[in-house]
Each structure stands twice: as C-alpha cells, then as structure tokens.
Amino acid sequence: MPPAVRRQGRLHGPRPHPGVLRRPRLQEPPARRHPLRGGRDQGRETGYTPIYNGSTGGWSQAGPGSFANADGTLTSQGGMGLLWCSAKEYRSYSLKLDWRMAGDDNSGVFVGFPPSSDPWSAVNNGYEVQIDATDTPDRTTGSVYGLKSADLAARDAALNPPGQWNTYELLVQGERLQVFLNGVKINDFTNTDPARSLVQGHIGIQNHGDGDDVSFRNIRIKELGGGGPITVEGEAYTAQSGVQPADHAPASGGRTVGYINNGDWAAYGGVDSAGATGLSARVSSAGSGGTIQIRAGSPTGPLLGSVAVPVTGSWDTFQTVSTTLTGSASGPVHLVFTGGGGGFLFDVDTFTLVRS
Fold this sequence. Notes:
Layout lengths: L48 E4 L6 E4 L3 E5 L2 E5 L3 E5 L7 E9 L5 E7 L5 H7 L1 E5 L20 H7 L7 E8 L2 E6 L2 E7 L11 E6 L6 E10 L6 E4 L5 E3 L2 E4 L7 E4 L6 E8 L3 E9 L5 E7 L6 E7 L9 E6 L7 E7 L8 E9 L1
Antiparallel strand pairs: 1-13, 2-5, 3-4, 4-13, 5-12, 6-9, 6-13, 7-8, 7-12, 9-10, 10-11, 14-24, 15-18, 16-17, 18-23, 19-22, 19-24, 20-21, 20-23
C-alpha cells in the first residue's frame, strides 16, 4: 500500500528512517510450514496461463522503484510503485501467484484497476490484497486493504513464515473477490462502491519502499469465461515487428502503439482469439491511415477480420473503428498493419475484443 501522506483512506506509510518513533507492531502470528501447501501447486491445476514465469513482457512499471528479475523471481526494490500487467484487462478469473517475505515486509496484489502510469490509480480505483502479517487486521496479510480483514484464525493456520513461499489465489467473479492462502479460504469480499468495480480491470504487484523486500514467482491466470469484452492497451504487446510505444496525453494511459509502417505487427500473448466475434479499436492518424488485420496465432496466421483506419487529422485525435470477426481459429491475437503513403500510418490506443 502507498504512503499515507498523499490521500486519505486506504493508505499507509512506508517505514520511517532509523531514529524516528513509530507505533509498535503487532505480534507476528504463529506460522508453520505446510508440507502440501505454499509455493507451486501446479500438479493439481488445469487451464492456467502464465503471465509471469521469468519474462516481464506485457508488464509495465508505474511510479518509482522497480522489481529485480532473476531466476524466474521478481523481487521488489524501492517505491512506492506498481508492476502491472498492462497486456490486458481481465474479467472473471482465478489469479494464482507465489510470494515470499524476507522478514517484516510489506507489499500487496492489486486487482480491478484501470490502465495508468500512476500507481495511485490502482490505490484509488482498484483493490489491494495485502501482504504484511504484522499490521492491523484490515491491513494485514489476506485483508482487502482498509476494507475487510481476513479470517485471522484461518489465515494464521495457513500462513508460512518469512523466508518460505506462500501461494495466493484471488478468485474474481463479478464484484466478488475471494482470497485463498495456500489452499485455505481466508477472505470473501463483495464490492458495493459505485465508484469502483471488480468486473473488469488490470492486475499488479506492489513495490512498497526501501526495506520492504517481497518476492513473487509463477504468476498465472485462468479466465473463467462469460466475461464479455476485453479491452487491451495497444502498447502492451508481448512481441512486435517495427512498432514502438508513442506518448500521447489523450491516449488511455498516456501511450499508444505507434511508429507504424506497412507490414509492421504487434502480438498480444495473453489475449486468446478463441471465440472472438468482433473487435473495435481506438485509433488516430496524421499520416495516411491504413488497415488493421486481426490474425490468430502468428502474423501470418488465419485472418479473422480487418478494419480500415481513417485519417483523423492529428496523432492526438482519436476515433473508434470496429469490425466483425469470423472463423474458429485460436491462439494469441496478432494485429498486422498495412497501408501506403510512405510514412507512419496510424496509432492504436486500445482495442476491445468481443467474444461470443
């Protein structure tokens, strides 16, 4: 969670410097190593897709600090910032990840927030499932930060101690968020705030600040279907040829996928084309415009549909184009860009995939 100085509400501050008085910490709950819990439990899993398993493709850092990435593990350093899965927004899913604290540390997993380069957007518009076993009940491990405490008895019985891996499952269905720790249900929260929504949003992990060292690995997700449209940031590609992110203040998150020439393409590894029946894209062009081809599996994979992109008059002037998609192919969505004119064609801010 963020430092307490900037906004009221669901915030709490970083560690004070040495010599600064602080409130006493609550006693750390008893913890024990579960031989069948904590860490990787993939042997019992089906249908999960890795979104981090050593590569940060499709992830973006918001705010100060960062995550060290080594040996398939992300470890927070500095802050307060957020590493978020910018590749897509999710609806109705089971998110699993392993986490480990070195000692009395602080971090959290954020869900249900809109795209932004400001980590405070996740704080103010999303929900944090806390990692910090010695804070107050509504701000401790397993809580929905500042809103609902975990079942502390169940949490304490399931929790592995610092230095050992734990596994979270966050089950998001509509406005309901259930939290499981090492296979044990420890929280069940339903959003009733009309200013926020769990129905659709991004996922992120927090780097809280200096001295708060929390590691993550094996982040995987299972989409549960029936989720409706999925909106993806154009610049959140996981592979590309020719394109680059472009900064534009009016764009969602302040960036687009841009510098597009004829024949360039962008791939979105976390976005499956299976069941897709339509696509809309928010685009701009001060070039010659062109066409977006939507293909499955590769830049030369089955063509699901295409949509013309007009000249909008400015790189900062956006409009939405849309098309229907046909065919039964599956695999990651690839956008292939075509056009003439000899210069940059157009930018893509976001695209929305509609499923049957």
